[in-house]
């Protein structure tokens, strides 16, 4: 497993982040899904495709993350299976990839229901007898499938220029009436660069996507941290590590006593001040000159004090001369 898979899967295992993504991608930010109502599912998709030559071919696919969610609507609870596929790069066959995952999960539901009935029979539990037409599939007329939805989470900074539906992958020469005979399959895509409002994100995962969205801009992340200072003062270390990984930022990890959250604002500005001081030392500026220059850039900043600059100057001075 590569580093990208490790970071993205670790983030998506978090129910708060998972629910936040589902609510924003599928429900325009409305809180239909709650973190405590998520249930982890086995991400391995396994099914058997029966070929005409009567040979069985086993197809095994590994989803990134798969969970069951419950949605309450009109005093009823609806259960939906949600899969998330993480993409660092643009995948030009993504509609087909996700369609295959969903189809396999539907096939697995049919298979599981058939096995469930057989298991009950072996235990002597009375189950409705299959009709002659039901016998062919092992699926009873009254049985129902759980909906399966796949979300593609894209961590790249480039605009997604890949297809967003199955129809977009077809040759342009295919027109009506043939096109309307082909069922379409649309991507549910989270593309940071395409998000225009971040107000509906409730968790720190929104900060990661915001950072990705501005990472190609000059001082984009630094400006974002300053603009959203209240949100960036208490950020999960997992998010900070992910920001560093996906955007090549170099935010110093400054763990608190619990080692789980950090003040990104403090880390960014002290890193900025430290770079200034190191440059001054490299240019052989005196301590007095360095103090005047750095403090003029951080006027009225309670963290970048004279004592801080002196300590950092001495550190870089000793480092340079040793």
The counted number of beta strands is 9
Unreliable stretches, pLDDT < 50, 5 or more residues? none
State the shape. elongated
- Main-sheet strand order equals 1-4-5-6-7
> What's the story with the biggest beta sheet?
5 strands, mixed
Structural class: alpha/beta
What is the end-to-end distance? 41 Å
Number of helices: 10
Give the amount of beta strand, in percent: 15-25%
Instruction: Work out the radius of gyration.
Output: 27 Å
Q: What's the helix-strand series?
A: HHEEEEEHHEEHHEHEHHH
Q: Approximately how much helix is present in the residues? A: 40-55%
Rounded mean pLDDT is 87
Question: What features would you highlight for this structure?
Answer:
single chain, 322 residues, alpha/beta, five-stranded mixed β-sheet, two-stranded antiparallel sheet, 10 helices
Question: What can you see in these coordinates?
Answer:
The protein contains ten helices and nine strands. By secondary structure, the chain is of the alpha/beta class. Strands 1-4-5-6-7 form a five-stranded mixed β-sheet, sandwiched between helices. The radius of gyration is 27 Å and the shape is elongated. The relative contact order is 0.10.
Entry summary:
41% of the residues lie in helices and 16% in strands. The chain is α/β, with parallel strands linked by helices.
Give the topology, please:
Layout: H1 3-12, H2 15-27, E1 39-40, E2 44-50, E3 56-62, E4 65-73, E5 76-87, H3 94-122, H4 132-135, E6 148-154, E7 188-190, H5 205-214, H6 220-227, E8 235-236, H7 237-247, E9 261-262, H8 264-282, H9 287-297, H10 306-321
Helix pairs in contact: 1-7, 5-7, 8-9, 8-10, 9-10
């Amino acid at each position: 497993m590569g580093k990208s898979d490790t970071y993205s899967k670790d983030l998506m295992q978090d129910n708060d982040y998972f629910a936040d993504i589902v609510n924003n991608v599928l429900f325009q930010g409305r809180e239909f899904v709650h973190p405590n109502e998520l249930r982890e599912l086995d991400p391995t998709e396994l099914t058997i495709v029966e070929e005409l030559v009567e040979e069985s071919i086993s197809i095994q696919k590994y989803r990134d993350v798969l969970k069951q969610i419950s949605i309450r609507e009109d005093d009823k609870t609806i259960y939906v299976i949600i899969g998330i596929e993480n993409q660092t790069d643009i995948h030009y066959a993504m509609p087909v990839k996700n369609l295959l995952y969903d189809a396999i999960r539907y096939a697995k539901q049919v298979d599981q229901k058939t096995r469930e009935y057989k298991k009950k029979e072996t235990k002597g539990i009375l189950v409705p007898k299959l009709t002659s037409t039901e016998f062919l599939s092992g699926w009873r007329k009254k049985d129902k499938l759980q909906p399966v939805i796949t979300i593609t989470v894209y961590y790249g900074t480039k605009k997604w220029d890949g297809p967003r539906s199955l129809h977009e992958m077809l040759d342009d020469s295919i027109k009506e009436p043939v096109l309307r005979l082909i069922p379409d399959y649309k991507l549910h895509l989270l593309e940071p660069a395409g998000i225009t409002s971040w107000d509906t994100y409730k968790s720190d995962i929104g900060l990661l996507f915001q950072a990705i969205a501005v990472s190609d801009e000059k001082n984009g992340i630094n400006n974002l941290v300053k603009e959203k200072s209240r949100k960036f003062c208490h950020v999960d270390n997992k998010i900070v590590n992910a920001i560093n990984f996906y955007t090549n930022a170099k935010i110093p990890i400054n763990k608190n006593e619990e080692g789980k959250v950090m003040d990104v604002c403090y880390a960014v500005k002290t890193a900025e001040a430290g770079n200034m001081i190191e440059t001054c030392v490299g240019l052989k500026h005196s301590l007095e000159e360095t103090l005047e220059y750095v403090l003029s850039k951080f006027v009225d900043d309670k963290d970048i004090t004279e004592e801080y600059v002196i300590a950092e100057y001495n550190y870089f001075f000793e480092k340079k001369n040793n």
